Amino acid sequence: KNTCDGxxxxxxxxxxxxxxxxxxxxxxxxxxxFEEIPLGGNVFHKGVYHNKEIIxxxxxxxxxxxxxxxTSMILAFGVQKVLFSGVAGSLVKDLKINDLLVATQLVxxxxxxxxxxxxxxxxx
Length: 124
Fold this sequence. Notes:
It comes from Helicobacter pylori PZ5024. One of its GO terms (biological process) is nucleoside metabolic process. GO terms for molecular function: adenosylhomocysteine nucleosidase activity; methylthioadenosine nucleosidase activity. The chain is an alpha/beta fold. The protein is built from two helices and seven strands. The protein has one domain (3-116): Rossmann fold (3-Layer(aba) Sandwich), CATH 3.40.50. It has a five-stranded mixed β-sheet with strand order 4-5-6-3-7.
């Protein structure tokens, strides 16, 4: 239960993906009624789902874009929790598309888009 000085406060959740293709199924799951709000070169989708205010956006690929979009979600919309949904690969045969994974260890590395005919080091 979220409270602020004894008054009920709506929980605000941000959902972020790197590409439009990653957030489209999320928006389809929530259905119609999300307002599109342009801000800082991005479009944020704002709506209410099960009494929670939801802000959905895609950041573009890379940690800088992700950081900027997350910061915008926090400062402009007051989100209290941020979930990242995205594409991943695995060598584990038991995993299926749409499985939810929670990381216990993380490794940071820079993106390499040379497989998509971009020069090494290019970040869109």
